[in-house]
Amino acid sequence: MKLLKEKIKEDGKLIGSNILKVDSFLNHQIDPKLMAEIGKEFAQRFHKEEITKVLTIEASGIAVALMVGLELDVPVLFAKKKKASTMDGRVYTGKVESFTKNQVYDISVAAKYLNEDDKVLIIDDFLAMGQASQGLIEIVEDAQAKLAGVGIVIEKGFQPGGKQLRKQGVRVESLAIIESLEDNQISFA
């Protein structure tokens, strides 16, 4: 997606050779016009899949998922990193290790919002090691729902997450794949 790549080049900040900081437009401060275009792009890529739910993980994936849900006209569901005291009844859970925070989370989704009749599109802002996507796939499988695929705004192609998901047979659509962050340069695949 050309617009996204331009925004990454203009406003992305490198931290070492493996962290790309995009908090000025994607995951802290959010550029709503860019989010709208991202939502349209994912909806176009997955429009034939008969998706009934968009699933993400709090917090950075919510803005993107909301725009995709709006375009596909389906509900957006997000996995919580801490089970809220108001979350009653049965829940589906998964484990996620955060690459940037070096922390393991138990994520959960209320079972009443996800079932075997659903066809789910997972959406997230980043794909590095693939842990968030794997945890969300675990939840989809526990619910006996069908997985339409995984939509990623920025994939770090030099890390194994995308390759592992594709090797498992998961359809992964990434809008920008970073090939390298070496020598203080952002290179796209």
TrEMBL record:
GO terms for cellular component: cytoplasm. It is found in: Cytoplasm. One of its GO terms (molecular function) is xanthine phosphoribosyltransferase activity. The keyword Transferase applies. The keyword Transferase applies. One of its GO terms (biological process) is purine ribonucleoside salvage. 5-phospho-alpha-D-ribose 1-diphosphate binds at A128, M129, G130, Q131, A132. It comes from the Bacteria. Coiled coil: none annotated. Pathway: Purine metabolism; XMP biosynthesis via salvage pathway; XMP from xanthine: step 1/1. Its main location: cytoplasm. SUPFAM superfamilies: PRTase-like (SSF53271). Residues 32-157 form the Phosphoribosyltransferase domain. Keywords: Cytoplasm, Glycosyltransferase, Purine salvage, Transferase. It catalyses: XMP + diphosphate = xanthine + 5-phospho-alpha-D-ribose 1-diphosphate. Its EC number is 2.4.2.22. Xanthine binds at L20, N27, K156. Belongs to the purine/pyrimidine phosphoribosyltransferase family. Xpt subfamily. Converts the preformed base xanthine, a product of nucleic acid breakdown, to xanthosine 5'-monophosphate (XMP), so it can be reused for RNA or DNA synthesis. NCBIfam families: PRK09219.1 (NF006671), XPRTase (TIGR01744). Homodimer. PANTHER family: HYPOXANTHINE/GUANINE PHOSPHORIBOSYLTRANSFERASE (PTHR43864), XANTHINE PHOSPHORIBOSYLTRANSFERASE (PTHR43864:SF1). This is Xanthine phosphoribosyltransferase. It comes from Orenia metallireducens. The gene is xpt.
